[in-house]
């Protein structure tokens, strides 16, 4: 609710074209009303149906939250930030040999990285499903309290760091030598879904690590789930830089967002535990 209120206000302030200010206000008011109605409906005798619906309601809202940031894209990019960020990518991929190391295992590792990048969209769905399947549905709220801020903070910072991905600003430079089917699929998906507001911080990396931290913390009885997601998160962080979807600084900032979200949740839970004693 805080995020969609924030976007509605931001749309009134930024120099965006009509009818985006009115559209953002109307759509986000409807989203907030939907959240309140679901909360009220679940409160009626603790209705299980509406409880489960609330568990899954954030999934489409995450896509909407991302798309709305596209409404706030600037008319033109100066590429000043990108010119500074690419310096670190050149060091990491060329000077320090990350690209050569990855392509030493070509085409297997490049394909795995592209697949990991594709799977990032499933991490919250997979996490909620596993909590439900292992009869820990009561922990979904706690998981989402950790996961959602990590993603939404990244989206919320986009307007302050206007930038475009390295694949478009520096076409051909540092591109992977390995050409895989998963890479072609990712590029086709991005052609119609990518926004031009910003790539900093990387919500892909934030989401991957936040999901891993959440499952490690809230499903410790089945450690394979958290470990699997942690490995996937590392692959995603590598993939976004190697595949030229993000700059290395984007990935680092995305990881920082997930860590900060985890630390805040841990602090809040400890405070609640002390207050309950």
What is the strand and helix layout of this fold?
Blueprint: H1 2-13, H2 20-43, H3 48-56, H4 58-71, H5 80-95, H6 98-104, H7 108-119, H8 123-133, H9 140-157, H10 166-169, H11 181-193, H12 203-218, H13 223-242, H14 248-276
Helix pairs in contact: 1-2, 1-4, 2-3, 4-9, 7-11, 7-13, 8-9, 8-12, 9-12, 9-14, 12-13, 12-14, 13-14
Describe the structure.
- The protein is mostly helical and 277 residues long.
- It has 2 domains: 1-56, no CATH class; 79-276, no CATH class.
- The model has no long low-confidence stretch (mean pLDDT 93).
- Helix 4 runs parallel beside helix 9, helix 7 crosses helix 13 and helix 12 runs parallel beside helix 14 (248-276).
- It is 74% helix and 0% strand.
- The chain has 14 helices and no strands.
- The chain is globular.
- Helix-strand sequence: HHHHHHHHHHHHHH
Instruction: Give the proportion of residues in helices.
Output: over 70%
Overall domain count:
2
Please state the average pLDDT score: 93
Structure class: mainly alpha
| Low-pLDDT regions | none
Cα-to-Cα separation, first versus last residue: 31 Å
Instruction: Please report the total strand number as a whole number.
Output: 0
Major sheet size, sense and barrel closure: none
Rg estimate, integer Å: 20 Å
What sort of overall outline do the alpha carbons produce when their principal axes are compared?
A: globular
Note the beta-strand portion. Answer: under 5%
How many H/I helices? 14
């Amino acid at each position: 609710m805080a995020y969609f209120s924030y976007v509605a206000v931001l749309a009134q302030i930024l120099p965006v074209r009509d009818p985006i200010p009115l559209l953002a206000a109307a759509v986000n008011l409807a989203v907030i009303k939907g959240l309140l109605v679901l909360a009220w409906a679940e409160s009626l005798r603790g209705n299980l149906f509406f409880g489960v619906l609330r568990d899954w309601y954030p999934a489409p809202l995450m896509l909407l939250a991302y798309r709305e940031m596209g409404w706030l894209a600037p008319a033109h990019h100066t590429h000043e930030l990108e010119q500074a960020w690419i310096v670190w990518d050149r060091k990491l991929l060329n000077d320090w040999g990350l690209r050569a190391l990855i392509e030493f295992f070509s085409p297997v590792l490049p394909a795995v990285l592209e697949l990991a990048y594709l799977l990032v969209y499933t991490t919250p769905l997979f996490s909620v499903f596993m909590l439900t399947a292992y009869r820990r549905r009561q922990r979904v709220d706690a998981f989402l309290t950790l996961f959602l801020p990590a993603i939404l903070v990244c989206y919320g910072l986009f307007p302050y760091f206007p930038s475009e991905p390295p694949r478009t600003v520096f076409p051909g430079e540092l591109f992977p030598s390995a050409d895989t089917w998963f890479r072609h699929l990712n590029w086709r998906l991005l052609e119609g879904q990518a926004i031009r507001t910003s790539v900093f911080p990387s919500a892909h990396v934030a989401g991957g690590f936040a999901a891993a931290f959440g499952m490690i913390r809230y499903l410790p009885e089945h450690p394979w789930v958290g470990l699997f997601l942690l490995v996937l998160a590392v692959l995603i962080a590598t993939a976004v830089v190697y595949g030229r979807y993000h700059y290395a600084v984007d990935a680092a900032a995305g990881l920082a967002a997930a860590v900060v979200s985890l630390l805040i949740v841990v602090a809040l839970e400890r405070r609640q535990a002390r207050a309950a004693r």
